[in-house]
Design brief:
alpha/beta; Rossmann fold; SIR2/SIRT2 'Small Domain'; 2 domains; six-stranded parallel β-sheet; 10 helices; 16% strand; binds zinc ion
């Protein structure tokens, strides 16, 4: 789940994939030399990661202003206290990769997927075995030192917070921050650049489970299409780039991606 973008509520409509659309998309994937996937919140909802923006979502329980970068800077101890509570609310249950994550990992293993760019911060793609992952908004499983920029595992840091270390600090004395892009915090050029390069070099961009409405993810499909890529969009609802899509499958990613894997065998 990506807290910046939120996710669309699952549609109660029939989400069965038209076999024609599916087979055409599979054929396009087969024909492409360089395939890049772009994923968003919709890929993780089936893993039980709650929606942030929908009614009853995380932002009904927590105030987004508490997780703003300016709040972190002004009051890192208070920020972390709430952050740990929110983390428990979002990831407290058994969160495991689902069929969509597994399908993308399978494509990569078979050499049918060259790179994966994600808006999600949950690490579930790596959990499923994907290795070539660009995380646009960081990863909630890590922390980063605001002074020396060293990145480390978040689990022991959350334990230290539970033991009263607020705010948690790096060995160098700097304050630790979740290694995710907070509201009001600029994205790192070192992650945007590889994502743009992947989009430019793709023969086919497979956008899955993203509303494609938040930058920089929103512009990646446009970049890919401008440089000649075929665009395949899999999402429950139409997106702002639907008109550009060569193949649009309005369906659940956990149905469509495994079906594509089967067709590509
Ligand atoms: Zn440090």
């Amino acid at each position: 789940m990506d807290e910046r973008t939120g996710s669309e509520a699952p549609s109660p409509d029939d989400t069965r994939v038209g076999p024609d659309g599916l087979e055409e998309a599979a054929a396009a994937l087969e024909a492409a030399d360089r395939v890049v996937a772009l994923t968003g919140a919709g890929v993780s909802t089936a893993s039980g990661i709650p929606d942030f923006r929908s009614e009853g979502g995380i932002w009904d329980e927590f105030d987004p202003a508490e997780f703003h970068y300016s709040r972190f800077q002004a009051d890192p101890a208070g920020f972390w206290e709430r952050r740990v509570q929110m983390h428990e609310a979002v990831y407290g249950g058994d969160v495991e990769p689902n069929a969509a994550h597994e399908a993308l990992a399978t494509l990569e293993r078979r050499g049918q997927l060259d790179a994966l760019v994600t808006q999600n911060i949950d690490g579930l793609h790596q959990g499923a075995g994907s290795e070539r992952v660009v995380e646009l908004h960081g990863n909630a499983d890590r922390v980063v030192c605001e002074r020396c920029r060293e990145r480390t595992d978040a689990v022991p840091v959350r334990e230290r917070i539970d033991d009263g270390e607020l705010p948690p600090r790096c060995d160098c004395g700097g304050v630790l921050k979740p290694d995710v892009v907070l509201f009001g915090e600029p994205l790192s050029p070192t992650t945007i650049q590889p994502a743009r390069t992947h989009a430019r070099e793709a023969d086919l961009l497979l956008a899955a489970g993203s509303s494609l409405s938040v930058e920089p993810a929103a512009s990646l499909p446009r970049t890919a299409v401008r440089t000649g890529a075929v665009l395949v969009v899999v999402n429950l609802e139409q997106t702002p780039v639907s008109a550009l899509a060569d193949h649009e499958l309005l369906a659940d990613v956990t149905d469509v991606l495994p079906a594509l894997v089967d067709l590509l065998e």
